[in-house]
Design goal:
The complex is a heterodimer of chains A (140) and B (143). Chain A has 140 residues and is mostly beta strands. In chain A, 14% of the residues lie in helices and 36% in strands. Chain A has 2 helices and 8 strands; from the N terminus they run ααββββββββ. A 5-stranded antiparallel beta sheet of chain B has the order 1-3-8-6-5, with no helix packed on it. In chain B, strands 7-4-9 form a 3-stranded antiparallel beta sheet, with no helix packed on it. Helices cover 15% and strands 44% of the residues of chain B. Chain B has 143 residues and is mostly beta strands. Classes of the chains: A mainly beta (140), B mainly beta (143). Chain A binds chain B through residues 31, 33-50, 52, 93, 119, 139-140, and chain B through 38-42, 45-58, 65, 67, 69, 89-92, 94, 96, 114, 116, 118, 124, 126, 128-143. Strand 1 of chain A pairs parallel with strand 2 of chain B, so a sheet runs across the interface.
């Protein structure tokens, strides 16, 4: 208002416009909007939908203890020879694979099994009438 | 002789007194004025905030970048990021936050951080084994 008074807005026929102009002038003079500095940058996303490959192998099984199966996984590329011949189905974004176990010296399926790195979301031992097997679901 | 000597001494004294009478000093004053325009500048621009994400991963992804701001001593300033409609890249929603929203200049470069987070469990949008996306953002310093 002091600026408006100094500008003599009270004596002008266009008082309202004069006062608005005076307010803008006062705001600019206050230094509240002295300046800005802007700089661009980017947000980047590298989205992976496929699993990291790795190799999992069952440990050498002891014929004397056929119920114990150890699985050793390594984060290294899949060797073609490690592709399992056992039943394997892809369900959504998880592999379901079946690790056969045997009775005594008898063994079902192959010994070397490929799974995939990730998180074991569930596992169970399936008991059938004539054999048992371990089933795991791995998600990532 | 004494009279002549006295006259000579008197004259000498009189002439000697003349310059002394004219040796006055003057001390004009003047001002040194400075019109300082305050300013802020970004001394180190933020680099990319780079996320690496695997669909449906179990933990949140984080990424960050630092930047430097140099402002006139005692000059207050604020920092803000632009707003986007979705904050989404490759179908993944992210959030950015500044380590500080304001500061006061000290004449030297001051370092700040842009922190990014991407929540866990997102699938994203990608028809291939991997995809990449970019969204441009802007950091603004107001002073």
């Amino acid at each position: 208002m002091q600026v408006a008074k100094a500008m003599g807005c009270a004596r002008t026929p266009w008082r309202r416009g004069c006062r608005v102009g005076a307010f803008a002038l006062a705001l600019a003079a206050s230094g509240a909007w002295a300046g800005q500095a802007s700089v661009p940058f980017a947000v980047t996303v590298n989205l992976r939908t496929g699993p990291e490959t790795g190799t999992c192998q069952t440990s050498p099984e002891s014929p004397a203890r056929p119920s114990i199966v150890s699985i050793d996984c390594h984060a290294k590329p899949l060797e073609p020879s490690a592709v399992p011949s056992t039943p394997q189905a892809r369900d959504g974004r998880a592999f379901r694979f079946v690790i056969p176990t045997g009775r005594g010296d008898e063994r079902y399926g192959g010994v070397d099994l490929y799974a995939g790195t990730g998180t074991i979301t569930s596992w169970r031992v399936v008991h059938l009438s004539d054999w048992d097997y371990l089933e795991m679901t791995v998600g990532w | 002789m004494n009279k002549r000597l006295a006259v000579a001494v008197a004259l000498a004294a009189a002439f000697a007194a003349i310059p002394a009478a004219q040796a006055g000093s003057i001390a004009p004053t003047f001002n040194v004025t400075v019109n300082l325009t305050s300013k802020c500048q970004v001394t180190t621009a933020p680099t990319d905030v780079a996320f690496t994400y695997t669909s449906f991963q179990g933990t949140a992804a984080t990424a960050s970048t630092t930047y430097g701001v140099q402002c006139t001593n005692t000059l207050p300033y604020t920092m803000a990021l632009d707003t986007t409609a979705t904050n989404t890249v490759a179908g993944l929603t992210y959030a950015l936050a500044l380590s500080a929203a304001s500061g006061t200049g000290n004449g030297a470069a001051q370092s700040y951080t842009v922190n990014g987070t991407m929540a866990a469990g997102q699938g994203g949008t990608c028809a291939l084994g991997s995809c990449s996306g970019t969204e441009g953002r802007t950091l603004t310093i107001t002073y």
